[in-house]
Amino acid sequence: MTDSPKNVLLIGAGGTLGRAVHRALASRGHQVHTVGRTSGDLRHDITDPAQIAALYEAAGPLDAVVSAAGSVPYKPLADLGPDDWRAAFTGKVLSQIELVRQGIAHVAEHGSFTLVTGILAREPIVTGAAASLANGAVEAFVRAAAIEIAPQRVNAVSPNVFTESLDAYGDLFPGMGSVPLERVAQAYVRSVDGAQTGQIYRL
Which CA distances in Å does 146 have to 106, 113, 166, 183? Predict the structure, then answer.
């Protein structure tokens, strides 16, 4: 348990990763406010900048914003059309950029943002081009934002496929191994409770 409990906004709390992150942060004594499109303490769609603004107004003052959400299409490259690329950008890049941009005014002076990317930013797979593009864009944004929003901090967690999800997705990641959800969740703890900024925690 931390000596300084924080007021944390967790986006994507109802998903596989979000539930693990929720448990890890709550075990540290933090007050975690859950956000989702259809479940959670607050119901907002972060692909809509107007809903992000409403979310921050509803949430009140915060110490940390944590994202465990981001959707991208998976298709062979030849089948990816302009709408797919836009969906990847809106679903994972713009949504998280807006969380930071709008959140600067709502997060404490020494507060933090933790975004989510993924292994496809550095280890591409067949059908994963849109995800690779989105993940790489988020990571580049984190490094750029870190030098502008200080003393607020921003990091990203970039995990491999989850061990718990190998039955469903393992065939897409041949020979790439996996990472347990608990370890990924601890990277979020590191970002929220640590002092680093501009980091990509690769797992």
Answer: 17, 10, 33, 24
Judge whether 89 lies within some domain. Answer: yes
| Residue 142 pLDDT greater than 70, yes or no | yes
Closest CA relative to residue 125, chosen from 64, 72, 82 = 72
Q: Estimate the share of the chain in helix, then strand, then coil, as percent rounded to the nearest 5.
A: 45, 20, 35
Q: By residue range, what is the domain housing residue 148?
A: 7-202
Interatomic CA distance for residues 152 and 124, integer angstroms: 31
CATH number of the structural domain spanning residue 45: 3.40.50.720
pTM value? 0.96
| Other Cβ atoms within 10 Å of 4 Cβ, number | 9
Q: Determine the Cα–Cα distance for residues 128 and 172; give it in Å rounded to an integer.
A: 9
- Cross-sheet strand order for the sheet of 31-36: 42-43, 31-36, 7-11, 62-67, 107-116, 153-158, 200-202
Residue 198: DSSP 8-state: S
pLDDT 10s digits, 87-104:
999 999 999 999 999 999
